[in-house]
């Protein structure tokens, strides 16, 4: 806005209003819409509300990069990965926008969550006469993971090995080195997600019983494993920071502010939990301020599943400062040293044995009487990464999340329709600060992944989107939803707030390859293009095509 | 109530712009997403496809009708308890579809709940917790009326 209006940044204030679902569309494109409204407001000296209709929105806003990915893998007879060569071309649309960063993330994740000593990745973005592509849940990785995870199953098939066993054999563990030369720390829950997904889904018995149906309806079960660098990573180190503000009022209630945004992912709730926990308050005593650039310094975009980690840690920093004063007064009321104070659900206790207690309301009242300062700003800088953009080596992300998806499908070979019956989604989130929220993300993201796999396709001709409404761009309805079984694995991240690492994008990422692999198991059809439409399946089944 | 309106205007526009009842949302303007679901003589309809001429002399119920004396309706409370309100935009439409269902069928099976909300698109939840919430509300599992909604 400052740039568009020619103002110093200090003269511009952005306040976020209620935002309904983002998934990437709110990363850079809002600046366009806001800019248009700002110019109108500036010129007319009146408040301006600008609303894009659904069709205008779909026609003009950024979408996931369509991509062409070519994989070549070298593997030993016993299933050990030796070499992976990837070439990817991403359709960037008319302008560069986020393509460099999208490509970088895709490149880092191209070799998959496996040990492999030789990796070569070439990534290109091309300009086309279309709306610029942009951020969408997974940010470049779903495309490359679809290709890589499909190939893993083709490898398993060639070797006569079970696909899950192949993945288990090559899965990255703590202490292993990734394709970028990063040595993995302790928060590596991949094998745990594999183990639990296998068990929860009944994979073994279904894998041997299915894939043999004689009739038109064929059942199959397929797996995928993925990983995802949480946070912005080494490419944009200057963005790896966040601020926060917290204040405690005279009645013991607290108000907090952060620079990241709530858009239905549950950030506000998780952060309120953190504040309540840090200050010893009840959850209902904590309120969030709307996100306002004048309240907290620039904390970077709410992307890359980073808000819990970055804003969470910034809030902990702010709370620690307030707690020193707040609990300090509590300590004197309880007549114990500060380090012996415990705070929980609106009460401060003296010692573990809770031999005395005082309500936070009483403590706050005493703070007011003593004119104690109960507000503070917080700041968090992500641990420095050693990424070298010239060599493509180093620590790309401060931590990775891991996931295993097991998809159960029923394929109608007469119509080519794939019915996703059940999806077991095991995710390593570090620590589930809000279990219902985590489940919700898994359920919602998995279904969005199913849409990516089966029905969602942006069709353009001569640069114009031909299906700009919900009757022609098909997103899953309640009738399409499979049985989704969320499995939460907690492999604590020492630098995350209470062990949590970023979580939000991962549920979408591994669904498409798991479904494609299940389809292959069910009907021997290998479709290498998304979405897996009936037309594409039927085409693969034509007698002129050799079966895989 | 009496509202002067041209017969060709859409119900959703009159609700939001003339009556300030912005609980009913506009998602697609084509009757595809269900965000504008209201009840017309007890039947769930997309307000973006209903003309004012069709509404004359009939009962229109919007999401604002569910809350009573600042207390949430059991359906609303059930949605909150189940964690079925992530971003909230589909929620009014979902609640109205569910409300219409429970009014005609107080004890629906899971299949019937799915069908009732299959015209309401949601991108956040995967529908799981929404269906759970309606199920709980129908079973009377949740609180009958919550404590007061906080003032704004």
Characterization of this structure:
The complex is a heterodimer of chains A (548) and B (152). Chain A is α+β, with helices and mostly antiparallel strands and 548 residues long. Chain A folds into 3 domains: 2-60, no CATH class; 67-234 and 389-541, Aldehyde Oxidoreductase, domain 4 (2-Layer Sandwich), CATH 3.30.365.10; 241-381, Aldehyde oxidase/xanthine dehydrogenase, molybdopterin binding domain (Aldehyde Oxidoreductase, domain 4), CATH 3.30.365. Helices cover 33% and strands 21% of the residues of chain A. Chain A has 15 helices and 16 strands. In chain A, strands 4-12-13-16 form a 4-stranded mixed β-sheet, sandwiched between helices. Chain A has a 4-stranded mixed β-sheet with strand order 7-6-5-11. Chain A is globular, with a radius of gyration of 25 Å. Chain A starts with a helix and ends in a 7-residue tail after the last helix. Chain B has a 3-stranded antiparallel β-sheet, covered by helices on one side. Chain B has 2 domains: 11-65, Ubiquitin-like (UB roll) (Roll), CATH 3.10.20; 74-139, [2Fe-2S]-binding domain (DNA polymerase, domain 1), CATH 1.10.150. Residues 142-152 of chain B have low confidence and may be disordered. The longest helix of chain B has 14 residues, at 91-104. Chain B contains 6 helices and 3 strands, in the order αββαβαααα. In chain B, helix 4 crosses helix 5. In chain B, strand 1 and strand 2 form a beta hairpin. The two termini of chain B are 26 Å apart. Chain B is mainly α and 152 residues long. The chains are: A alpha+beta (548), B mainly alpha (152). At the A-B interface, helix 12 of A face helix 5 and helix 6 of B.
């Amino acid at each position: 806005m400052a740039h568009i209006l020619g103002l110093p940044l200090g003269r511009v204030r952005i306040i976020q209003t209620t935002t309904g679902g983002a998934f990437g569309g709110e990363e850079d494109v809002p600046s366009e819409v806001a800019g248009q409204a700002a110019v109108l407001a500036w010129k007319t000296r009146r408040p301006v509300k600008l609303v894009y209709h659904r069709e205008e929105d779909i026609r003009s806003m950024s979408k996931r990069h369509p991509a062409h990915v070519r994989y070549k893998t070298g593997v030993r007879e016993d299933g050990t990965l030796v070499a992976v060569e990837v070439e990817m071309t991403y359709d960037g649309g008319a302008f560069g926008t986020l393509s460099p960063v999208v490509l970088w993330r895709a490149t880092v994740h191209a070799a998959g969550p496996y040990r492999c000593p030789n990796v070569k990745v070439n990534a290109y973005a091309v300009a086309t006469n279309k709306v610029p592509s942009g951020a969408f849940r997974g940010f470049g990785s779903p495309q490359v993971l679809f290709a890589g995870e499909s190939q893993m199953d083709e490898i398993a098939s060639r070797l006569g090995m079970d696909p899950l066993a192949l993945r288990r054999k090559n899965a990255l563990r703590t202490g292993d080195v990734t394709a970028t030369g990063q040595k993995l720390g302790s928060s590596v829950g991949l094998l745990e997600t594999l183990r639990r997904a296998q068990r929860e889904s009944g994979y073994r018995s279904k894998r041997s019983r299915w894939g043999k149906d004689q009739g038109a309806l064929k059942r199959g079960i397929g797996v995928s494993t993925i990983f995802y660098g949480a946070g912005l990573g080494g490419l944009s180190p200057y963005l790896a920071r966040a601020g926060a503000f917290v204040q405690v009022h005279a009645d013991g209630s607290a108000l907090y502010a952060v620079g990241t945004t709530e858009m239905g992912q549950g950030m506000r709730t998780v952060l309120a939990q953190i504040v309540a926990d840090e200050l010893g308050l009840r959850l209902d005593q904590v309120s969030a301020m709307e996100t306002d650039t004048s309240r907290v310094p620039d904390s970077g975009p709410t992307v890359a599943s980073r808000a819990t980690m970055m804003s969470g840690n910034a809030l902990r920093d702010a709370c620690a400062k307030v707690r020193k004063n707040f609990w300090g007064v509590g300590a004197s009321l309880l007549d114990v040293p500060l380090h012996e104070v415990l705070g929980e659900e609106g009460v401060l206790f003296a010692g573990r044995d809770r031999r005395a207690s005082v309500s936070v309301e009483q403590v706050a009242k005493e703070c007011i009487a003593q004119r104690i300062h109960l507000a503070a700003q917080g700041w968090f800088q992500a641990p420095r990464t050693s990424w070298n953009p010239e060599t493509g080596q180093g620590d790309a992300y401060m931590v990775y999340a891991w996931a295993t998806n097991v998809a159960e499908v029923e394929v109608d070979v007469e119509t080519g329709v794939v019915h996703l019956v059940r999806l077991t989604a095991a995710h390593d989130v570090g620590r589930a600060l809000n279990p219902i929220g985590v489940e919700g993300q898994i359920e919602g993201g998995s279904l969005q992944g199913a849409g990516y796999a089966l029905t969602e396709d942006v069709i353009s001709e001569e640069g114009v989107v031909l299906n700009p409404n919900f009757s022609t761009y098909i997103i899953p309805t309640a009738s399409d939803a499979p049985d989704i079984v969320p499995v939460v694995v907690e492999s604590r991240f020492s630098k995350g707030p209470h062990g949590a690492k970023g979580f939000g994008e991962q549920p979408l990422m591994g669904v498409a390859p798991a479904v494609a692999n299940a389809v292959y198991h069910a009907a021997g059809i290998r479709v290498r293009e998304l979405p897996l439409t009936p037309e594409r399946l039927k085409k693969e089944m034509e007698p002129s095509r050799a079966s895989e | 109530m009496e509202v002067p309106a041209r017969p060709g205007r859409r119900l959703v526009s009159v609700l939001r712009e003339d009556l300030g009842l912005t609980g009913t949302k506009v998602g697609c303007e084509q009757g595809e997403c269900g965000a504008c679901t209201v009840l017309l003589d007890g039947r769930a309809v997309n307000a973006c496809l209903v003309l004012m001429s069709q509404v004359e002399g009939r009962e229109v119920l919007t999401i604002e009708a569910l809350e009573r004396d600042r207390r949430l309706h059991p359906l609303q409370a059930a949605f909150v308890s189940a964690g079925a309100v992530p971003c909230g935009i589909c929620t009014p439409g979902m609640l109205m579809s569910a409300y219409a269902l429970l009014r005609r069928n107080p004890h629906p099976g899971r299949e019937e709940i799915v069908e009732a909300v299959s015209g309401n698109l949601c991108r956040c939840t995967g529908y799981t917790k929404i269906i759970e919430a309606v199920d709980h509300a129908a079973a009377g599992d949740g609180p009958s009326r919550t404590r007061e909604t906080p003032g704004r």
